[in-house]
Amino acid sequence: MSKMLIFAALLLILSITNAAVYELHLVIYKNDSVELKDLNVTLGSPGPFPDAGNDNNYEFRIMAKDNGVLFNQSFHLGFVAYRFRGPDSTEPDVVPYNKTDNYWRLPYFDNASRIQLFHENRLIFEYAIPEKQETESTNAAPNAQGGGGIDIYLVFSYAFALLVVAFIIYKTLSKPAKGGGQA
Amino acid sequence: MRYLCPVLLFLLIFIQVSMAVDSPFSCTEQKWHKNESHSIIIVENCTFNATASNMTIEVVNKKGGHLQNPKEATINGREIKYEYSEPEIERYANNAGILSFRIPSSYLNGNGENSLWLKYEIDNQAENGTDLENYDFSEDIMVYPFEYYPSLEITANTTPFEKNVSTVTFTITNRGENDAIPDLGLTVYSIRLLNIRTDDIYSLGHALLECKDAFFCQNASVGILPLPFDINYSMIPEKIREDNELEYALRRDLIHPGVIIGYMVDDYAPIKFYLFNGLKLEKDQQISFSFNVSFDSSQKPKKMPYSDTNVAETTAVYPFYRYVRNTSLPGEYDLIAVNVTNYTKTFFYKGNPRPNNSFVYILEETDGLIGEYTPKHKMGLVFVPIGYGSNESEEFKDVARKSAERFVSTSPFEECDSPNDQIDVYTIDPSVCNITGCNNICGGDDAANDCQALVDKCSMNIKNQFDYIVGLCKGTSCGGKCGGCANNIPSRSVVVNTVNCGGADASKIVTHELGHAMGLYHISSTFGVNDCWDHEGGACQGPNAEDCNLDDENISRDIMAYCPSMESYGSTGYGYLKNNVFLKYMDGCYK
Asked: What does the DSSP assignment read for B505-523?
C-alpha cells in the first residue's frame, strides 16, 4: 500500500513537472488577421491540432532566443463547417465562416522567445514572450510572486519537496515491515 | 613558485577583467573580527542592476582563507538559498570557496534595480599567509546570468528496438562563447521502465545499460535513483541488504569498465542512472557517447493494478541532463538551468507528433516479455455537455459513453485486440462550464452563440492530451434543429444535438461528425433507399470520394451519408482512416 501511495505521488509529481504548456486563446480570421485574447502558462498537454497531412496550411512555431526552432506544429484550418441536417431541414450543409475562436496548447520552453503562427508559410502572428512571463504566469502556482504566476523553478522545488515527503513516508511505513510485518 | 606567481597574477588580472565586464554590483562593506575564531564577518550591502530572467550570484574568496558558512543573504529582502563549493585551485587561491546564489526572476524588481544583503564569514588569514584584514571583499562578488554558462547543444538519438536492445546516443557540444568552467558536470541519463497500459502497470525484469564509450564510461561514476534521491553508486548493495523492500538486484558480475549495471525493476518508481565524471568541454568541443539499453526476461514481470486513469505515461526512454557546477551531488535545481539548444524535450507528449530526436518506446519489441501490446498513442476524445443541468450529469455521460463505444466499434480500432483500450474518453461534468445552449451549431461570428467555440473553451478543463472535442447538446439545445456540425474537415471540434434525427440517434451522428473531423466528406445517397434523404452538401470529394461509386444499398449504410442506418464507414473512407488518421494510434494493434 505504501508503495502504491508513493508511486501515485511520484506520478502525480511527474505529471505536474512534465506538463507545462502555453495556452493561447486565439481568434484567427480568414483574412489572416489574428487576435490574441489571452496567453497563459499552465499545466496540460499540447494540442489538439486538426491534421490534414500534406494539406496542412497553418503552422505554429516556438522560437528560441537564438532563433532556433524549439517546436513546430502544422495543422489545418478551412473556415467551412459541414452540417448533418435532418430530412426536413432546409439549412445549408456547407457553412462558410470568417473566424475561428480556439484555445491552443503549445509546449512550454524555458528559453522560448517568440510564438509564431504561419499561414501557408507566411507569418501572420507573432507574440514576443516577455522575459518575466517566461517563467511566470497563470493561476497554477499559488505561491508564485508578482500576481500569481507559475514559476518552473518553484514547480521543481515543490516537486522535490514532495519527493522528500514521499521518501520520509516510505521510510516510516517500511520500517515495521522489516521486523516481520504486521500481525 | 617562481613560475606559479606569474601564473596566479595572470589569473587574477584575467578575473579582474572579467569582473569588470560581468559584475554590476555596487557594494558597501562592513567587517569585524571574531577574535575567538580569528575569522572576519563581512556584511555587504549592494545594489545591482539585473535584467536577466534568472541569474546566479557568486561570492568568491579569491584571496584564500576559508570562506565559511554564508550565514544570511537576501535579495530585495527575500531570503535566498546558497550553495557552497570548493573551486579548483587553478582558478582561485588555495582553500578559497564559492558561495552560489541562484536567483529566480521573481525575486528581482521589475525596474531592474535590486539590493543584495549578504553576511558571510571568512578566515582571517589565508593558508598562504596573506593577511585578509584589509582586503576589499566587495570585489569578490560576481554575477553570472545563466548565459554565462556554456551553451550546451544536446541531442539524444535512439535506434529502433531490436532483439531487446536499443542504442541511445548522446552528443553534447559546447556552443558557448566561454571555455567550459571548471567542473562542468555531466549529462544525466534516465530510463523509465513503466509500462502503463490503460489502468495497468507492468514491471519488466532486468534492464541492462552498457556504456559504449570507453573514455567516457571508464571515468564515470554512476548513481542510481530508484527513489527520488541521489544514492551513491557504492552504497547500492548495502542499501539493498539494509532494506529488503527495495528489491534492487545489482548484478555485480556485470560491472566492469564499459558496462554500467544490471538492474531489476520490481518497484514502481522510475529509475534514473546518473553519471558524473567532471567532464570539461572547451568551446565547440563535442563529445558523443552511447548506451545499449536492453532487457532480459529472467525476471518474470508482474502485473500491477493501478486505477488512476489520469496518468498518461507510457514506457519510454527519457534522456535528460543536469548541469552541475562541481563534483558534489547537485541540489534540486538545474534541470532547466543550462541554455540548451536543439534538445527537443526531456519528455514527449502522448499523441503529439514526436520530436525529431525521438525517444525509444522500449516495449515496442518486447511484447513477448509481458504477452501484451503497449500502444504508443491513444486517441483522446473529450465530450462537452451543452444544455444539461447539474443534476443530469449521468444522462450526459451515458450518451457520451454510447457515442464513444459506437465510434470505436465502427472505426479501425475494431481491428485491435482491445478496441476500447485504444481510446481515452474524457467527459466534463455539466457543472464545470454550465453551457445552457447556443444558437450556431457550426460556429460563426457571435462568440456567445458559437457552439464550437464554447466547447473548445470548455475542453481546456481536460489537462491530458486529447485529439477531438465532441459537444453533446441535450435535445436541440444547439441551434434548435436536429443534427450536428463539424467545424471543418478536418476539425478539432464537432457539436451534436442528441435528439434523434431522421432515424439516427446521437451516437450515430457523433460517428458522422467525427468522420468529418478526421477528414471524410459526405457521400451522396439516393432518396428513399433505406430511408435515406439525399442532398448531402459538398459530397463526393476528398479521401473518401470513391465511396460515392458504391451501389445504393452500400451507400445507405455509409456513416457519411444522410441515411438512418450509419452502419460503417465506406470502404475507401475506412481505408483512409486506417492508413492515415489512425495509424499513429494503432501500431502493432492489428490482430
From this structure: -HHHHHHHHHHHHTT----
